[in-house]
Amino acid sequence: MKKIVILLVVFFGIQQSNAQKKIYLSDKFEELSKDHKIIAILPFQTKLNLKSDKDSYSEAQIQKLAQEEGVAVQQALESYFLNRKRKKKLKIEFQDINTTNRILKKEGITSENIDIYAPQELCKILKVDAIINGSLTSRLLLSKEVDTSFDLITFLKGKSDYGKIIIKLSDKNTGKLLWRYEKTINRKSGKNTSAIIDKMMRKASRKFPYEEKR
Questions:
Q1: CB 3.0-4.6 Å disulfide test: which of 44, 89, 123, 169 passes with 179?
Q2: 137 near 47, Cβ under 8 Å?
Q3: Nearest to residue 138, comparing CAs of 177, 187, 97, 180?
């Protein structure tokens, strides 16, 4: 019986691993990014589905928490990329996120209306060559520590996933999508936003197009 359980865990683990991670790289990346020097990381658009806590939060509170979660992803990505940059593994620079957020606020751009702006417009406003943005959906507050312990029953029922994150890189001149990374979030992803971003980006680092070739 124990061997069967182990085999099931391995099988489902492989299946989940294959299904949870999707990376896209434009075949025109080299052509469109040859003059890229600085990139802005935007706050992520976040949708929270806090079902277990629905009686604890008002709609206004959930909206505020969603904005905070979006900024937490932005901060975690900046920390990751700056760390890669210090190790001389990236060929581009990043606009300080405080500068990015200050400009967005000055222009009246919020998480509620940012969808009406094309990537070209956002790049022009921020004076950068490309933008990194994306979305997060979650039924937990990732900026707080989450339970990462293994639960076989939950795993086998297919309920171990609790969110998804999509990271996109877009060009300033064409607005075209240059790179996209989609990852399902589960107990194995990490205990908080920083750990999740660090782990998922380390796994995708060879596919991140600005990585220095070794």
A1: 169
A2: yes
A3: 187
